[in-house]
Amino acid sequence: MSDHQTVVDSYADLASDRFLEGREPDLLADALNDIAETDMEVAVLEEWLIEETDLRPRNGTNRLFVGEVERESDKAVLFDAGGRDDWIPKSCSQLYTTNPGVEIETPQSGLTDHLKQPEEVDA
Question: In the chain, what are the domain boundaries?
Answer without folding.
Answer: 5-103
